[in-house]
């Protein structure tokens, strides 16, 4: 796995990413629980002025500070993504939660080096919580290292997904088969569920129909907390992944879930 070494340049990159999260949080909160014009995108997911404004502000700051870096964003397209350094932005992950007043929406910020996510931030503006993951280091939450639960058996696991609506027919069978053997299954959370996994409260998350901006920031956060996150075939996540994601607190739990997926 790539490591974001503790050089002055790397420290500056982490500080810059945290600055992006600081920029985004008050902007999204200015729009939160206010009357919004909600539009439907081609995939039928809602988009608001808040999404577009937050991403535009982050893109402007990236362009001013790192003009040679690529940007892969949800709302304003992609630029220079063949670069060795690419930022992947989701200004408001959980737009459906956002427009219905639920505080679990977040801002996701990832930095890729040669296609590998080496830095990721999950920022939850409404609760002022933030997870910062960097390859080769412990994930930070509230200024201290956090750790996944250590759960190794599905029968002991609390498993989350955002909604059953994200699955196709086969995916729903997979989800049902996986969670049939779990201690508990819960719905909702969007990116917040992955932060809670990194902090040891949720043991596994299984989802599909995600886009790179939905999951690449999660990779350093989960891995830095001792967890495992891959696609449904156990492959590393990247810009070319198919949107099926599984995150687990331990390698043992991850392997058990992958085995069930393979049998379904």
TrEMBL record:
Its EC number is 3.1.3.15. Its cofactor is Mg(2+). NCBIfam families: his_9_HisN. Belongs to the inositol monophosphatase superfamily. Mg(2+) 1 binds at residues 74, 92, 214. One of its GO terms (molecular function) is histidinol-phosphatase activity. One of its GO terms (biological process) is L-histidine biosynthetic process. Gene3D superfamilies: 3.40.190.80, Fructose-1,6-Bisphosphatase, subunit A, domain 1. It catalyses: L-histidinol phosphate + H2O = L-histidinol + phosphate. Keywords: Amino-acid biosynthesis, Histidine biosynthesis, Hydrolase, Magnesium, Metal-binding. The lineage of its organism: Bacteria, Pseudomonadati, Pseudomonadota, Alphaproteobacteria, Rhodobacterales. Pfam families: Inositol_P. Mg(2+) 2 binds at residues 90, 93. Pathway: Amino-acid biosynthesis; L-histidine biosynthesis; L-histidine from 5-phospho-alpha-D-ribose 1-diphosphate: step 8/9. It is an enzyme of class 3 (hydrolase). SUPFAM superfamilies: Carbohydrate phosphatase. This is Histidinol-phosphatase.
């Amino acid at each position: 796995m790539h490591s974001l070494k503790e050089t002055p340049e790397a420290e500056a990159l982490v500080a810059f990413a945290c600055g992006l999260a600081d920029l985004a949080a008050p902007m999204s909160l200015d729009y939160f629980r206010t009357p919004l014009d909600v539009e439907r995108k081609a995939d039928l997911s809602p988009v608001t002025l808040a999404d577009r404004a937050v991403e535009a502000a982050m893109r402007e700051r990236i362009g001013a500070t790192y003009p040679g870096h690529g940007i892969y964003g949800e709302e304003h397209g992609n630029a220079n993504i063949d670069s060795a350094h690419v930022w992947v932005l989701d200004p408001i992950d959980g737009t459906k939660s956002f427009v219905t007043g639920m505080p679990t929406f977040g801002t996701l910020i990832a930095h890729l080096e040669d296609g590998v996510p080496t830095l990721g931030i999950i920022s939850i503006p409404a609760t002022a919580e933030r997870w910062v993951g960097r390859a080769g280091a412990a994930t930070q939450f509230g200024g201290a290292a956090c750790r996944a639960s250590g759960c190794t058996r599905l029968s002991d696991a609390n498993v989350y997904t955002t909604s059953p609506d994200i699955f196709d027919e086969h995916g729903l069978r997979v989800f049902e088969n996986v969670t049939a053997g779990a201690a508990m299954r819960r719905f909702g959370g969007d990116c917040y569920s992955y932060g809670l996994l990194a902090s040891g409260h949720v043991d596994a998350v299984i989802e599909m129909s995600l886009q790179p901006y939905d999951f690449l920031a999660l990779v350093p956060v989960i891995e830095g907390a001792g967890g495992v996150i891959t696609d449904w075939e156990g492959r590393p996540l990247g810009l070319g992944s198919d949107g099926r994601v599984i995150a687990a607190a331990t390698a043992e739990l991850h392997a058990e879930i992958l085995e069930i997926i393979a049998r379904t």
